[in-house]
């Protein structure tokens, strides 16, 4: 039995109650969660931006301790500390072998809300099957997850900090280090400075960008952006970010790399506009499925030599990137503690969603 936060249907508040878990099947692992970050993508399931079946245990950014392993599991054993990866990475498929673990061919099953084979391991209090987000459902004290969704870490890393590596840090820092091609001395802009955007900012700093322009509509976020490495902040409610960035970049007319980390049509268009000729636009925010763009290929792509690149999960290969990120954290180059605005109990999950809607927090983290 485990206490979990369940979404029963679109726009419904989450309900916290006990669920029943089966033993892990072959290739699966039972993990006692220590912590789970609350990410905008959880909210995006609640409001339908990311369509998933319900009733579902949300949460996809966690870390914990392995309690039990299923048949054939070799990479972890009970007692190991693990980060749960939002994207499973098998290491053996076409994408994984080409260094694109973030596109692992096993990951597509997440849309079923089940395990890799589409079936469920968790039951509601009335005995009916529950779905889980991203094969994980980290808004639960205990979870059954695929072995290929866990990354073993050293036992001395605080699990509360490690949980953030499962989605937000991986996505944001990876966008700057892996997806984008930031060169030493570049000027970059980040539109949207929430839990993921702040990580794109610190990733850009680590990649060697010298000017980092942060755009948000919330003053607190712009303050945080500066702590994470932004050199300039633009409040989008006070001035038009596009003309402000043209003013800042002079004859170059735009930044070398622009990141959009919200997922709105308007801000995606802004990110493309503020990208200089020959520069890159990196789309990180997850848009609703009905968002479409009108692109003039002559002026926006061909004559201007611009690149627009989608970024899924920071283009990360987790077995390499998790240890790499933890090294950066140990050296003091990567901020993790500073991302946590609030530590909460799973009972406070709806308040955490409200705080995120209000733009008040970088991350709320559930501690179990
Ligand atoms: N202009 C500028 N900033 C905006 C605007 C806007 N029109 N709309 C929202 N913002 C800012 C908010 O103030 C907030 O700081 O965008 C930020 C979004 O941050 P979070 O809600 O914390 O979201 P986050 O968890 O960072 O996720 C961002 O990445 O992984 C995806 O699904 C996720 O699409 C989401 C995006
Ligand atoms: Zn997420
Ligand atoms: Zn794979």
Describe this structure in words.
The chain is globular, with a radius of gyration of 20 Å. Strands 3, 5, 6, 9, 10, 17 and 18 form a seven-stranded mixed sheet that branches. Strands 13-12-11-14-15-16 form a six-stranded parallel sheet, with helices on both faces. Strands 1-2-7-8-4 form a five-stranded mixed beta barrel. It has two domains: 2-166 and 336-367, Medium-chain alcohol dehydrogenases, catalytic domain (Quinone Oxidoreductase, Chain A, domain 1); 172-312, NAD(P)-binding Rossmann-like Domain (Rossmann fold, 3-Layer(aba) Sandwich). The chain has 368 residues and is an alpha/beta fold. Helix 6 (219-227) links the parallel strand 12 and strand 13. The mean pLDDT is 97. The protein has helices spanning 40-46, 94-97, 159-162, 168-179, 195-207, 219-227, 241-249, 265-273, 297-302, 318-330, 349-357; strands at 2-7, 15-21, 28-38, 56-57, 62-69, 81-84, 122-123, 129-132, 142-146, 150-153, 187-191, 211-216, 232-235, 255-260, 275-283, 307-310, 340-344, 363-367. Helix 4 runs parallel beside helix 5 (195-207). The protein binds adenosine-5-diphosphoribose (APR) and zinc ion (2 copies). One zinc ion binds next to helix 2.
Secondary structure layout plus pairing:
Layout: E1 2-7, E2 15-21, E3 28-38, H1 40-46, E4 56-57, E5 62-69, E6 81-84, H2 94-97, E7 122-123, E8 129-132, E9 142-146, E10 150-153, H3 159-162, H4 168-179, E11 187-191, H5 195-207, E12 211-216, H6 219-227, E13 232-235, H7 241-249, E14 255-260, H8 265-273, E15 275-283, H9 297-302, E16 307-310, H10 318-330, E17 340-344, H11 349-357, E18 363-367
Parallel strand pairs: 4-8, 11-12, 11-14, 12-13, 14-15, 15-16, 17-18
Antiparallel strand pairs: 1-2, 1-4, 2-7, 3-5, 3-9, 3-18, 5-6, 6-10, 7-8
Bound molecules: adenosine-5-diphosphoribose and zinc ion (2 copies).
One zinc ion binds near residues 89 and 90.
């Amino acid at each position: 039995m485990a206490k979990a936060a369940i979404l029963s249907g679109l726009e419904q508040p989450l309900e916290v109650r006990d669920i029943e878990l089966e033993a892990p099947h072959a290739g699966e692992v039972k993990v006692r969660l220590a912590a789970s970050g609350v990410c905008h993508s959880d909210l995006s399931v609640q409001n339908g931006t990311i369509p998933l079946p319900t009733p579902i245990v949300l949460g996809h950014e966690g870390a914990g301790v392995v309690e039990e392993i299923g048949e054939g599991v070799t990479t972890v054993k009970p007692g190991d500390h693990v980060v749960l990866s939002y994207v499973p990475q098998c290491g053996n498929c076409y994408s994984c072998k080409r260094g694109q673990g973030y596109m692992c061919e096993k990951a597509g099953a997440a849309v079923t809300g089940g395990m890799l084979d589409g079936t469920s391991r968790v039951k509601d209090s009335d005995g009916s099957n529950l779905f889980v987000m991203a094969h994980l459902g980290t808004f639960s004290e205990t979870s059954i997850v695929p072995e290929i969704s866990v990354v073993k870490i050293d036992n001395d890393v605080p699990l509360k900090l490690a949980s953030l590596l499962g989605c937000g840090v991986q996505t944001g820092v990876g966008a700057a280090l892996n997806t984008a091609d930031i060169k030493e001395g570049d000027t970059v802009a980040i539109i949207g400075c929430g839990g993921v955007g702040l990580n794109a900012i610190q990733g850009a700093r680590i990649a060697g960008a010298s000017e980092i322009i942060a755009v948000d509509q919330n003053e607190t976020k712009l303050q945080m952006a500066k702590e994470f490495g932004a050199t300039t902040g633009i409040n989008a409610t006070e001035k038009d970010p596009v003309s402000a960035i043209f003013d800042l970049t002079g004859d170059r007319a735009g930044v070398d790399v622009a990141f959009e980390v919200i997922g709105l049509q308007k801000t995606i268009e802004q990110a493309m506009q503020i990208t200089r000729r020959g520069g890159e636009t990196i789309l990180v925010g997850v848009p609703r499925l009905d968002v479409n763009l009108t692109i003039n290929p002559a002026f926006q792509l061909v004559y201007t030599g611009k690149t627009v690149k989608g970024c899924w999960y920071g283009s990360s290969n987790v077995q390499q990137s998790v240890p790499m990120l933890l090294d950066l954290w140990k050296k003091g180059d990567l901020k993790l503690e500073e991302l946590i605005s609030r530590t909460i109990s799973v009972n406070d999950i709806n308040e955490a969603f409200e705080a995120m809607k209000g733009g008040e927090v970088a991350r709320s983290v559930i501690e179990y």
